[in-house]
Design a protein that fits this description.
Elements: H1 2-38, E1 40-45, H2 51-68, E2 73-78, E3 82-85, E4 89-92, E5 96-101, H3 104-117, E6 121-126, E7 146-151, E8 157-161
Antiparallel strand pairs: 1-6, 2-5, 3-4, 7-8
């Protein structure tokens, strides 16, 4: 009976360890996701350009970058090795396979280069906490007058000008 209890203990420890790892993985994902919405965002920007032309230029550059650096999914094996739970039982954690796009960084650089060749600069802005003003913007205001941005319900973005610039 003593051996049976020990085996059950090992099984429970592995179960709690796996559950702990799963909870921690989702907790980290959630924290990163929430913080990503709170931080700054980088936009391509050209003073006085219409939003329609910006959207067309961005789509053209994204398509060109995708053509020059197509999606290349590679698999990486991640070995976890031996895991100890409360220093009582030693178990082997299962190996995992992680997939990633090998050309993701290259595509981003190609996109930035393409947009720069069309005269766009990168503008880093915070999300507005208390947005004021119209949200039906068609032309981008001068970059030095922009204070923050607002995401509209239709997923478009409005750049809010500083109060002293109005």
């Amino acid at each position: 009976m003593g051996g049976r209890a020990k085996r059950l203990d090992i099984c429970l420890c592995f179960g709690r360890g796996a559950l702990y790892a799963w909870v921690m993985r989702w907790l980290v994902f959630f924290v990163v996701f929430v913080l990503a919405g709170c931080g700054t965002h980088v936009f391509f920007y050209k003073d006085g350009e219409s939003k329609a032309v910006l959207a067309e230029d961005l789509l053209a550059c994204e398509a060109e970058a995708l053509e020059r650096a197509p999606v290349d999914i590679v698999e990486d094996d991640i070995e976890f090795g031996i895991v100890s739970f409360r220093h009582r039982n030693v178990i082997f954690a299962p190996a995992q396979i992680q997939t990633r796009d090998a050309n993701l960084g290259l595509r981003a650089r190609l996109e930035r280069s393409c947009m720069a060749s069309k005269g766009y600069t990168r503008l880093e802005l915070d999300r507005c906490e208390n947005p004021i003003g119209p949200t039906d913007q068609t032309v981008l205001p001068p970059a030095e007058n922009v204070a923050c941005y607002v995401k509209n319900p239709d997923r478009s973005v409005t750049f809010v000008e500083r109060e002293d610039a109005l």
